[in-house]
Write a structure and sequence with these properties.
five-stranded parallel beta sheet; alpha/beta; homodimer; 494 residues; elongated
């Protein structure tokens, strides 16, 4: 009789869990429309032990959601292409759009722990990695992302049982990876690694949710509860977003002058220019070869006044380069699918692979110039951007990239002369638009913004170089010199 | 004296070539603006012998052009990712936008010849490959692309000399590939392969330009002359574009009924539905596993009336699938950068890799439905599209993909009932827009277009399936059955 009673209770409990799941799935189904309306992007990171049921759980979580509203990505070992980019690259370019879900079947945690276990990361590198991850996660949240981090936990015994069960069947044995088996054999070491990681990345805004995954329905219920609660809170707090503190990390800065203190009278004679251009281009051409072989990535970021001579300046660089090893990325207004993501997303996507050069003709600094001045982003957003950009650039330089930032500088009179000349030359009229004239009217506002930008983002590892370009030829030689110098320095350090 | 005279003439000739190059570079510089205005995309394919100077030539050709207007792509051996897609995939997704140049440092020719030489292609496969290439090139031209095909030729002796020179210097030896050396040893075989290929792909609209590449300045002059002439003609012929013949290849068709002949009264009982849904989903789930292991790609293309039940139908499929192995692609209006390319570009980009399933919620058939009826493309464009789509799908099925196309069908009254129900349900109001009502007014026009589409594109290898969806449950079971059947057939054939 007692036995029957226990069964009865178990059945009832099972029934309760089933009912709870049903209710929570309804909630999630409704939330799909709510996040669409609120333009909330939701990133659900599911990490955990091998054979803990990550894939299965995600399969259950998505089932009430319309397939058009989510994406599932399994993070495998990085491909060759991915290995030739910074660690964060493949994770950053996967982030969802506003109003959509992304479910990650393991992600940057699993990758990092494996690399640590395979001794691919020194302890210093591992510490830096944790920094990068916390920065990445914080940037996502600052930019309105909801990040839900779930860790599926099972005991050593349970893991062993699951692995054995899977291996026993021909149809399922291929699902067990060598790493899973290894993990079970070194369960305690792994546990310590996991605990250390979870502790180091457990931030108040993106805490870890540890789910006991032995019983599948309970695990599903718990995950649904966590996810729906998080969405609920995130939607309610959408307005409060603006009150998050603006962080400014203390990166060492490089003293760089204010624009008004720059001497724009520097010139070069035509003769000297021709000679030096030839010499520099030959030099740069040879260096490009060596960069390619040593797999050093180079990023040149160009900003400057309209008609300052960015295009011609870039051309003098590219003429020296092997066309198979570089790319020029002109930056225009963001497209709708770009606007629907973190503003750095479109720049992350263009980060070169090792050994290649990417030249940005206008850059991510649009955030603190045109977007600031035209009101395309909020004050908090552009104020936050200085630090976000420093963090972004730090990822690039830590990865080993040579990063040079040029402000191509002219004075207001020179711009007028050049605008007028363009207007009068049928071959160059296309280069000048009404927008250029409108921007010119805001010269003083831009000057303030540019000065602030340079003061706040001229870091030691990625300093700004102001290029005096009233004499375009002088400017070209100066950027060539700076580029050559930086590349030589990087080559010498390898 | 005679000797001096000869020198004099050589010098003069050299001077002449230099002057010609200068002039042609000026022409190209101006053409950059002309192609921008004419929205002409220009694809320059540079093929040729190893060490013939392809990279160098491209470096010279681009030098008068603004770096923002071109891209250079070196076609290397396909990556693992690329190998898991159809042959044309990586070439198609690289095509330039309107008004821009793409320079290819070797491309589909080099790849094809190498595969032939490495016995990766049987002679039958090679013949099919040539068909694919000619189709690809013709589609580009039909869609307004200028394709300039250059082959750089050098003699066996000259190639040997260049390879030896490169190998002699530590700084250049890495530029010589094993294949280059192999090629020189088997020069005559390669020559025969090249000649056969050049002959087979030398079409009136995209002829080969063979350039003698021994003397670099002359080769540069010749290439500049060819390129600028081709651009000149293409811009002049831009209007005549509309007069190109509309090709309709004779793919065997699958008899498919007109919409008005479809019996929409088919239903399924709730009980039978529940039972069959469960059975089918379990079956499909097991098949997905096997597909994944056998690396068979699957593409499901959904079209249908608004409110016909596409979303719910897709969901019954995806609920059975492992979320790590499929993706649902909702198709909306094309974005600006998509509009600036061949209309199939955005669909090519989404072709799954082997072993994966992609479900398109609306498809490339928009071209012959909404784009046709709303005037988003010209009459010639949508008329041409039937064949282009058949060709596209043939590439997919020849590659080994399972491709299923579903027209989810309801009658006009059922649509009205569902629209009204949506309007009255706060949870579903978001599903109905003014556009849906406007489209409904054009029901008869759409019906004509859909019938024509189905009659012209229901090929034997990629037939249309009309899914009676007045009873949504009946429709879901039918698509599940068709999907299971097609996958089983594909698995049996492996």
């Amino acid at each position: 009789m007692l036995r029957n009673f226990i069964f009865q209770t178990e059945r009832e409990e099972k029934e309760t869990v089933k009912q709870e799941i049903k209710k929570l799935r309804d909630v999630l189904f409704r939330q799909e429309q709510i996040i669409k309306k609120a333009k909330l992007p939701v990133l659900v990171l599911v990490e955990g032990w091998g054979a803990a049921g990550k894939g299965r759980l995600i399969g259950r979580l998505i089932s009430p959601i319309d397939p058009r509203s989510f994406k599932v990505v399994s993070t495998n070992a990085p491909t060759d292409e991915e290995r030739r980019h910074p660690f964060l690259w493949r994770h950053f370019i996967n982030i969802p759009e506003n109003g959509k879900f992304l479910f990650l079947d393991s992600g940057w945690m699993d990758e990092t722990i494996r690399q640590k276990q395979h001794k691919e990361l020194s302890s210093g590198e591992y510490a830096n990695r944790l920094q990068s991850i916390n920065t990445f996660e914080r940037q996502l949240m600052d930019n309105g992302y909801l990040l839900v981090k779930i860790f599926l936990n099972i005991t050593e015994k349970e893991q062993k049982k699951r692995i054995d069960d899977l291996l026993a069947e021909k149809d399922t044995s291929w699902r067990v990876s060598e790493h899973d088996v290894w993990q079970n054999k070194h369960y305690d070491t792994c546990l310590a690694d996991y605990e250390e990681y979870l502790y180091a990345t457990n931030t108040p805004d993106a805490p870890w949710h540890i789910i006991e995954s032995t019983h599948k329905p309970e695990a599903e219920r718990d995950a649904l509860k966590i996810l729906t609660d998080c969405i609920d809170i995130a939607v309610k707090n959408r307005e409060a977003q603006e009150e998050r503190p603006i962080i400014q990390k203390d990166y060492p800065l490089n003293p760089t002058p204010l624009l008004c203190d720059v001497d724009l009278n520097r010139t070069i004679s035509d003769e000297e220019y021709d000679k030096e251009l030839k010499r520099c281009q030959e030099k740069l051409s040879a260096l490009h070869n060596r960069l390619y072989r040593k797999k050093i990535p180079v990023i040149l970021a160009y900003e400057g006044w309209d008609a300052a001579g960015k295009g011609g300046n870039i051309k003098r660089i590219t003429n020296a380069l092997d066309p198979r090893g570089y790319e020029v990325i002109p930056i225009a207004s963001p497209l709708p699918h770009e606007l629907a993501r973190h503003y750095l997303w479109r720049f992350w996507k263009q980060v070169p692979k090792t050994g290649h050069i990417t030249i940005f003709d206008r850059t991510w600094y649009g955030r603190v110039m045109v977007e600031r001045l035209e009101g395309f982003c909020s004050e908090r957003e552009w104020k936050r951007a200085y630090n976000e950009i420093n963090e972004f650039e730090r990822e690039l330089t830590d990865w080993g990239a040579v990063l040079l930032k040029f402000w191509i500088h002219i004075d207001k009179e020179t711009q007028l002369t050049r605008f007028t000349a363009r207007q009068n030359d049928p071959d160059k009229q296309w280069k000048i638009t009404d927008e250029d004239w409108r921007n010119r009217e805001k010269w003083e506002l831009y000057e303030t913004a540019v000065n602030e930008m340079i003061q706040k983002t001229s870091t030691k590892t990625a300093p700004w170089h102001i290029i005096e370009s009233n004499d375009k030829k002088y400017a070209r030689i100066k950027t060539l010199h700076l580029t050559i110098e930086a590349i030589e320095k990087a080559l010498a350090a390898r």
